[in-house]
Amino acid sequence: MPRVPFHYIDLRTFCYATEDEKRVEEAIRAFLPEEFELDRMENAGHHGDRIVVLSARVENADDMRLILDRLAELDEIDRIMDELDERVDDNCSFFLRLDKQAAFQDEVELGKGITLRAKVEAYPAKHEAAVENAREALEQSRS
């Protein structure tokens, strides 16, 4: 089984007062293994409205593979691979924003709503090495 060159993958989304929390939870769970535990934090917006933050940190290699396999379904996966230099920061973190509404419908699209941050393994911890490791992981998930 191929190595997963990530320390962890974080997923996070917000559920605003106008949204159904169960549906937002379903959207983020579209990228997670069954029964994966979500962290839930309740906040108040600028006008006192309720905002619930749902997040998950995935550290198990098999669970990270599941997320990568879902990302491989993106129509724009080639574009993402072309943009890896911009999507991986100097701290070796890979960033992606996914469409929350599409995820609720069990589809994978770029968009607003769900933030993915993956800490890329790179030794030494250099931007170029992290980009190459992220590219390798995405290419493996496509095959």
TrEMBL record:
It comes from Halohasta litchfieldiae. This is RNA-binding protein. Transmembrane segments: none annotated. Pfam families: RNA_binding. Gene3D superfamilies: 3.30.1440.10.
